[in-house]
């Protein structure tokens, strides 16, 4: 549940009412840093950085096949969920003095341009996520108009609905809450809670 490469000891436990918790098995494994994690870190640090966000537009010219986009979407969005973003982190970047009238590229434009449904939903839940929807880029496009222009029906619906639900494919995935050295993760599909602690 942490955002660093580390060796983790996992204990599988079983419990029944009136009986002590039984450790069924224990194993250690090593987390490794992958491209999705690197991409999430890069995107998180370049929120509001126009030079970096403009650089990401080259991906649009070599648009990957739909299956690759779906894979990329899930991996990067999950990596984002595991990043410990600073309390002041914002989808629009650190400089909140910028008014909404200044045309600029945002992380939301990036996610929508590539059709990244899960990442877009994640960004909508973050500070500045909803505000990013009304910002025009240098071509005059908002994330909402980009979704419409590119024919991303589900994405457009996600951006325009007031109480948009999580994309279906996320309904069984985990929800993580970080608190200092600890994180608690709830896997909805299995109704299992996991507590991890830095040691």
What do you see in this structure?
One of its GO terms (cellular component) is actin cytoskeleton. InterPro entries: Ankyrin_rpt-contain_sf, Rho_GEF. GO terms for molecular function: MAP-kinase scaffold activity. This is AKP13 protein. The structure is a single chain. The chain is α+β, with helices and mostly antiparallel strands. The radius of gyration is 19 Å and the shape is elongated. The protein has eight helices and five strands. It folds into two domains: 35-166, Serine Threonine Protein Phosphatase 5, Tetratricopeptide repeat (Alpha Horseshoe); 173-198, no CATH class. The strands form two sheets. A three-stranded antiparallel beta sheet has the order 3-4-5, with no helix packed on it. Strands 1-2 form a two-stranded antiparallel ribbon.
What is the topological layout?
Layout: E1 7-14, E2 22-30, H1 35-45, H2 50-55, H3 58-61, H4 66-82, H5 107-113, H6 117-124, H7 143-149, H8 153-160, E3 174-179, E4 182-187, E5 192-197
Helix pairs in contact: 1-4, 4-6, 5-6, 5-7, 6-8, 7-8
InterPro entries: Ankyrin_rpt-contain_sf (IPR036770), Rho_GEF (IPR051632)
Organism: Calonectris borealis
GO biological process, one term: adrenergic receptor signaling pathway
**Overall strand count:** 5
Rg is: 19 Å
CATH architecture of the largest domain, by name, is Alpha Horseshoe
Order of helices and strands: EEHHHHHHHHEEE
Strand order of the largest sheet: 3-4-5
Helix content: 25-40%
The CATH class of the largest domain turns out to be Mainly Alpha
Uncertain stretches of 5 or more adjacent residues: none
Percent strand equals 15-25%
What is the molecular shape? elongated
Output the structural class: alpha+beta
Distance between the termini: 13 Å
CATH topology of the largest domain: Serine Threonine Protein Phosphatase 5, Tetratricopeptide repeat
Tally of separate domains: 2
Mean pLDDT, all residues: 81
**Number of continuous helical runs:** 8
Largest sheet: 3 strands, antiparallel
């Amino acid at each position: 549940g942490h955002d660093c490469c580390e060796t983790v000891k996992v204990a599988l436990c079983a419990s029944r009412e009136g009986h002590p918790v039984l450790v069924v098995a224990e194993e250690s494994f090593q987390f490794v840093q992958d491209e999705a994690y690197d991409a999430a870190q890069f995107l998180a640090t370049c929120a509001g950085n126009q030079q970096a966000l403009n650089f990401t537009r080259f991906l649009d010219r070599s648009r990957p096949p739909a299956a690759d986009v779906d894979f990329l979407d899930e991996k990067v969005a999950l990596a984002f969920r595991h990043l410990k973003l600073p309390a002041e982190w914002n989808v629009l970047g650190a400089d909140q003095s910028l008014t909404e009238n200044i045309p600029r590229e945002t992380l939301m434009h990036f996610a929508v341009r590539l059709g990244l449904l899960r990442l877009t939903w994640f960004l909508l839940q973050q500070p500045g996520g909803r505000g990013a929807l009304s910002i025009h880029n240098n071509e005059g496009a908002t994330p909402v108009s980009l979704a419409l222009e590119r024919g991303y029906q589900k994405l457009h619906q996600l951006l325009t609905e007031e109480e948009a639900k999580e994309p279906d494919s996320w309904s069984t995935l985990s929800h993580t809450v970080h608190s200092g050295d600890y994180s608690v993760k709830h896997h909805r599909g299995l109704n299992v809670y996991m507590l991890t602690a830095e040691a």
